[in-house]
Design brief:
Elements: E1 2-10, E2 13-22, E3 28-32, H1 39-46, E4 53-57, E5 64-67, H2 71-74, H3 81-88, H4 96-106, H5 123-136, E6 141-145, H6 153-170, E7 174-177, H7 181-187, E8 190-195, E9 198-204, H8 205-210, H9 215-222
Parallel strand pairs: 3-7, 3-8, 5-6, 6-7
Antiparallel strand pairs: 1-2, 1-4, 8-9
Helix pairs in contact: 3-5, 4-5, 5-6
The structure holds adenosine-5'-diphosphate and magnesium ion.
The site of adenosine-5'-diphosphate (ADP) has 11 residues, from strand 2 and helix 1.
C-alpha cells in the first residue's frame, strides 16, 4: 500500500500534512506519535472514511478494514457476536456458521461466544471479536488503531500475541498505530514516527529504536523503559 502526499484538513487545522508512506505487502508498519499528531486521521483517510487530498494506491479501499481502540463502541450491543462477525463475511449463507466458527477459533475464542452479546464479554474478548469481524472480510490491509490502549494491562499482551500469530498465519499487511514504542517493537517490522501531521522518521523498527535519528523520536523513547531499547 502506497500513501502519497496525503493531506487532511479540518477547517484551519491540518491534521495530516502531505504525508507519504509505503506499507509493503505482508509486513506490519507501526505508526507512533503523541496524542493529536494525526495518527487516527491518517488511518481514517486511508480507509476512505474522511475527505482528503493525495492518493492511496496498491490496495482497493474497499479491502481496508479497521479495528479501533474501544471495541465496545465499534460493536453493536444488540447484535450477537456471531451476527457481528457474519455481517462482514463474503461467503454463501449456508457457510456462514462454519466460517464464523473458524474466525472465532482464529482469534482463540470458543464457538459458544457466537451466541453472546458484547456486554457479556471481557474487554479483551470484545477486542478479539472486533479483530475477527475485521478479518471476516478478508481485508488486503488491516489498520489497528490503539487496539490495546483501552485494555487492562493483564490482557494487552495476549491481544498483541494474537496479532503476531495472525500475522504469521495470514501474512497480514498492517498499519499498527500505537503511542507505545515497546508495543510497536514487539509487533512491527518497520515504524513511522508522526508529529504534527508529518513523518519525522521511518525505518526498520529495531534501527529506529536503538539508533533514533530525529530528536522527537528520542523524546518519545525517553518516555519508555530502558529495557525496551536494548
Ligand atoms: N473530526 C474532527 N474535526 C476536527 N478536528 C479533528 C477531527 N478529528 C481530529 N481532529 C484534529 O486533528 C488532529 C489530529 O487528531 P488525531 O488524528 O485524532 O490524532 P491522534 O490519533 O494522533 O491522537 C488533532 O488536532 C485533532 O483535534
Ligand atoms: Mg488516535
Amino acid at each position: 500500500m502506497i500513501i502519497n502526499e496525503l493531506t487532511v484538513r479540518f477547517g484551519d487545522v491540518t491534521a495530516v500534512d502531505r504525508l507519504s508512506l509505503t506499507v509493503p505487502e505482508g509486513t506490519v508498519t507501526g505508526l507512533v506519535g503523541e496524542s493529536g499528531s494525526g495518527k487516527s486521521t491518517l488511518a481514517r483517510a486511508v480507509a476512505g472514511l474522511v475527505p482528503h487530498r493525495g492518493t492511496v494506491t496498491g490496495v482497493d479501499r474497499g479491502r481496508v478494514q479497521m479495528v479501533f481502540q474501544d471495541p465496545y463502541s465499534s460493536l453493536n450491543p444488540r447484535m450477537t457476536v456471531g451476527d457481528a462477525i457474519a455481517e462482514g463475511l463474503r461467503v454463501p449463507r449456508a457457510r456462514r456458521g462454519a466460517e464464523t466458527e473458524r474466525l472465532l477459533d482464529l482469534v482463540s475464542l470458543p464457538a459458544s461466544c457466537a451466541g453472546r452479546r458484547p456486554r457479556e464479554l471481557s474487554g479483551g474478548q470484545r477486542q478479539r471479536v472486533a479483530i475477527a469481524r475485521a478479518l471476516a472480510a478478508r481485508p488486503d490491509v488491516l489498520i489497528a488503531d490503539e487496539i490495546t490502549s483501552a485494555l487492562d494491562v493483564s490482557v494487552q499482551g495476549a491481544v498483541l500475541n494474537l496479532i503476531r500469530d495472525l500475522r504469521a498465519e495470514l501474512g497480514l499487511t498492517m498499519l499498527f498505530i500505537s503511542h507505545n514504542l515497546a508495543v510497536v517493537r514487539y509487533v512491527c517490522d518497520a515504524v513511522a514516527v508522526m508529529r504534527h501531521g508529518r513523518l519525522v522518521e521511518t525505518g526498520p523498527v529495531d534501527d529506529v529504536i536503538t539508533r533514533p535519528r530525529a530528536p522527537y523520536t528520542r523524546t518519545l523513547l525517553d518516555a519508555v523503559p530502558r529495557l525496551v531499547r536494548n
